[in-house]
Amino acid sequence: MATLRKVKKIKRINYFNVSLGVLLISISLFVLSNLFLRSHQTSLSLQTQNTMALVNQLIAENEALEVEIAQLSNYDRIIALAKEEGLTLVQGNVISIKDGE
Question: What is the reported pTM?
Answer without folding.
Answer: 0.55
